[in-house]
């Protein structure tokens, strides 16, 4: 029996140790130097769907955040390598040094900023509610009825704001990209869904027309930003200057007008 | 290196972890009970001589073993509502686990029956026993012993597979671990707590297997 207990303790230790080694951060001075020496910018992305990061008709990764990052690498004079993670793997990937920078439709929140450093925002978005057309939920108020099931993405800002806006609702968190929330509502597994307005309006284009009814009310206003590690001050300063520059010369506006504020991208991708 | 592990956070989330642990146990338990029932039925159908009864059971075993559990889970969760069947996710999870493991259980039991020496079939047949009597009194008692170990193995696989249910918003051990990782950005603490939970269930099953073999020792065996 003691033999059994010993093996148990040993396996528990093994599990704990295996965990710690993966989380060891390789702190390095001068991330920007490293990137230039390597000739490669390693970017943690997610394939959450249009308009920020998705696989287009030709099977190529593209989207607003992707194009902006390509521009960043071009200005830096290096090539881009994308590391594709699930939403909840993005910050750990950055923290563990697997990626130099995180480019996703991630809101700069105070909690996340305790772990990673956010750049200046490149766009502001807001959370919206939606349901299927022809459902009993005619307005956002209907979705606040007690017991209504509300789909959100696991680890998203909506997961934090939904209990406030829908105190009597029953929240269901789904792991994966934004479309999983739309799928959950379309299939009836949840009655209403909450996600970023820009993501919702781009992603409903993948579904037959009139599948969804998106409510106009903006529940929140959230800044989306790039993130780097706190020990990458050089990269942070450079990225902020990059954002100022593309904002000043109109290249950011061109990107957003093409991807986010219109459905123009649909013709090409 | 263990200094990196923030035990305080794990304790803070202990109520949630405990709930996840109970849910994992409950869903795995019901899932395995369902798998045993499905497996026994499927196995009985595959070894009996009527072809029209055999074909659907063989098809079930083949289709399930050829496709990943994740695909089966998504089919049940996102596909069935299109056919007008809307079930709560916990039920879908249990059904998916039972359906998936049932196919493997059927194969394990079948291999146990096939391991019974041919002479036993022939001897019982010449004693004038009916098919059901032969199975009940001669074949099955001998077939059960070699299947216990692989069945416990299958139960262990099922317990770990149940972590996939976190993908359809079921709160179980893996989901609570993800939640710790996401709320506090402490993936190590979250995953270590999850792993510890699964390890405990594993040792429970192992102890169960040891108990079974102690009480069902063959005469003359150590």
From TrEMBL, chain A:
Name of a matching Pfam family: SBP_bac_3
Domain Solute-binding protein family 3/N-terminal residues, every copy: 40-263
CDD domains, per database record: PBP2_peptides_like
InterPro entries assigned to the protein according to its UniProt record, in alphabetical order: Solute-binding_3/MltF_N
SMART domains, per the entry: PBPb
Stretch forming the signal peptide: 1-27
Keywords (A to Z) from UniProt: Signal
Stated name of the protein: Amino acid ABC transporter substrate-binding protein
Organism: Tianweitania aestuarii
From TrEMBL, chain B:
Membrane topology field: Multi-pass membrane protein
TM annotation in the entry: 20-45, 90-116, 191-212
Protein's cellular compartments: Cell inner membrane; Cell membrane
PROSITE patterns xrefs: ABC_TM1
Primary location: membrane
InterPro entries (alphabetical): AA_ABC_transptr_permease_3TM, ArtM/GltK/GlnP/TcyL/YhdX-like, MetI-like, MetI-like_sf
Highest taxon in the source lineage: Bacteria
Boundaries of every ABC transmembrane type-1 domain copy: 21-209
This protein's UniProt keywords: Amino-acid transport, Cell membrane, Membrane, Transmembrane, Transmembrane helix, Transport
Function field: Part of the binding-protein-dependent transport system for glutamine; probably responsible for the translocation of the substrate across the membrane.
Family, similarity comment: Belongs to the binding-protein-dependent transport system permease family. HisMQ subfamily.
Protein name as annotated: Amino acid ABC transporter permease
Organism: Tianweitania aestuarii
């Amino acid at each position: 029996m003691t033999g059994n207990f010993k093996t148990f303790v040993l396996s528990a230790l093994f599990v704990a140790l295996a965990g710690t080694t993966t989380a060891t951060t390789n702190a390095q001075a001068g991330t920007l130097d490293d990137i230039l020496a390597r000739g490669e910018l390693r970017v943690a992305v997610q394939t959450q769907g249009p308009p920020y990061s998705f696989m287009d008709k030709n099977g190529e990764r593209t989207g607003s955040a992707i194009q902006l990052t390509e521009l960043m690498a071009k200005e830096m004079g290096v090539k881009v390598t994308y590391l594709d993670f699930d939403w909840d793997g993005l910050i750990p990937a950055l923290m563990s040094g697997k990626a130099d920078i995180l480019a996703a439709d991630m809101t700069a929140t105070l909690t996340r900023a305790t772990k990673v450093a956010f750049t200046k925002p490149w766009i502001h978005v807001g959370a919206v509610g939606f349901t299927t057309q022809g459902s009993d939920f005619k307005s956002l108020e209907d979705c606040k009825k007690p017991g209504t099931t509300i789909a959100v993405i696991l680890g998203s800002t909506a997961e934090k704001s939904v209990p406030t806006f829908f105190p009597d609702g029953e929240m269901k968190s789904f792991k994966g990209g934004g479309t999983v929330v739309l799928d959950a509502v379309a299939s009836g597994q949840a009655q209403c869904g909450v996600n970023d307005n820009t993501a919702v309006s781009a992603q409903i284009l993948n579904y037959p027309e009139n599948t969804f009814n998106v409510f106009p009310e903006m529940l929140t206003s959230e800044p989306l930003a790039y993130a780097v590690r706190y020990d990458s001050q050089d990269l942070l300063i450079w990225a902020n200057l990059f954002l100022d520059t593309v904002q000043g010369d109109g290249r950011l506006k061109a990107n957003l007008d093409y991807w986010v504020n219109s459905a123009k991208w649909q013709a090409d991708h | 290196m263990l200094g990196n592990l923030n035990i305080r956070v794990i304790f803070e989330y202990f109520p949630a972890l405990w709930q996840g642990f109970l849910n994992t146990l409950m869903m795995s338990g019901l899932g395995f009970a369902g798998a045993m029932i499905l497996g026994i039925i499927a196995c009985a159908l595959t070894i009996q001589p009527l072809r029209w009864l055999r074909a659907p059971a063989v098809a079930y075993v083949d289709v399930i073993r050829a496709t990943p559990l994740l695909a089966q889970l998504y089919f049940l969760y996102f596909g069935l509502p299109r056919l007008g069947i809307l079930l709560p996710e916990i039920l879908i999870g249990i059904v998916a686990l039972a359906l998936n493991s049932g196919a493997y259980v059927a194969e394990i039991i079948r291999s146990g029956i096939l391991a019974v020496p041919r002479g036993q079939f022939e001897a019982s047949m010449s004693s004038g026993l009916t098919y059901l009597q032969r199975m009940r009194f001669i074949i099955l008692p001998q077939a059960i012993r070699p299947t216990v170990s692989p069945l416990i193995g299958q139960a262990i696989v099922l317990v770990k597979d149940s972590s996939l249910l976190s993908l359809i918003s079921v709160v179980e051990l893996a989901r609570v671990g993800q939640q710790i990782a996401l709320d506090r950005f402490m993936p190590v603490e979250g995953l270590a707590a999850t792993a510890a939970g699964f390890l405990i269930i594993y040792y429970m099953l192992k102890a169960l297997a040891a108990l079974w073999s102690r009480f069902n020792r063959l005469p003359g065996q150590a």
